Amino acid sequence: MKSGNLCAFKDCRKSLTSDGEKSEPALIGEAAHIYGENAGTDKKKPSARYRADMTDDERNHYNNLIYLCPTCHTKIDKQENDFPAEMLFQVKSEHEQWVEEQLDFGMSDVSFAELEVAAKAIASGNHVKDGDLTVIPPEDKLAKNNLTSVSRSYISMGLSRSSEVTSFLAQMSQIDDGYPVRLKDGFSEKYLELSANLSGDELFMAMLNFAQNGFSDFKQQAASLALLSHLFHLCEVFEK
Fold it and tell me: At a CB cut-off of 8 Å and minimum separation 6, what does 196 contact?
């Protein structure tokens, strides 16, 4: 999610989601290894920038991955000498910092329109239940779910627009009084699906990926984060 759904190379920054005309959006981004994954064989040379002294966990850890479009991924591996590891780590760091800045800027412009689009990605529309939509104080919930500073920074950013989200939900409930609860149920349903295999920061980031629905526009990404952060505090599933 730190990629902003964009290729990390500054002169590329291609969207990593392809919008289909008759198909659902498809993720085309690739998590490229900075230090290569495979040791090679007698007939095949090692992956680009391979280091024998790394464990498989280290090679496949987020810290050793950079999110790129397929073309840039191919380029860094086939033209290895032009893309040393130190350069790729710097590209990744600078890109993630730029994305965070753009998301922060986009957050200040979040409006009803962006929240409405973001809500469509979350609301299941399949359930109508009685539920308490009072925001739960955050600190205990963050601790219970083992969320580190990574998720905390995103949640804090999203909650800066909590008043706008509250106003949005209030307006939508005047049109359809079951709408806020269906939105909450859609969130809970996805959380329960993802929590079968994920936890902590990985779970929250997967929820953010779900909420952002392949958006590349930073204002729309910010709206998704604002809505998700608000729902994070609403939904009792995080209390378990």
Answer: none
**CB within 8 A of 124, min separation 6: which ones?**
182, 185, 186, 189
Q: DSSP states of 82-103 as a string?
A: GS-HHHHHHHHHHHHHHHHHHH
Which residues are registered as beta bridge partners of 17?
27
Q: Residue 222 to residues 2, 135, 168: CA-CA distances in angstroms?
A: 13, 20, 15
What's the DSSP call for residue 125? -
Closest to 61 (Cα-Cα) out of 105, 92, 21: 92
CB 94 within 8 A of CB 66: no
Locate tokens 């993720």: which residue? 27
Distance CA 223, CA 113 (A): 9
**What pLDDT, in 10s, does the model give residues 120-150?**
877 754 433 444 444 455 666 777 777 788 7
- DSSP-H helix ranges across the chain: 56-59, 70-78, 85-107, 112-122, 138-144, 149-159, 162-175, 179-194, 200-212, 218-234
- Strand segments (E) across the chain: 17-18, 26-27, 30-33, 65-68
pTM of the model: 0.74
Q: For residue 225, how far is the Cα from the chain centroid?
A: 9
CA distance 150 to 205: 9
Alpha carbon 94 to its chain centroid, in Å, reads 18
CA 84: distance to chain centroid? Answer: 27
Specify the residue for token string 């000498």.
81
* pLDDT tens profile 82-122: 999 999 999 999 999 999 999 998 998 898 898 888 888 77
Residue 52 is classified by DSSP as: T
Tokens 């469509």 sit on residue: 120
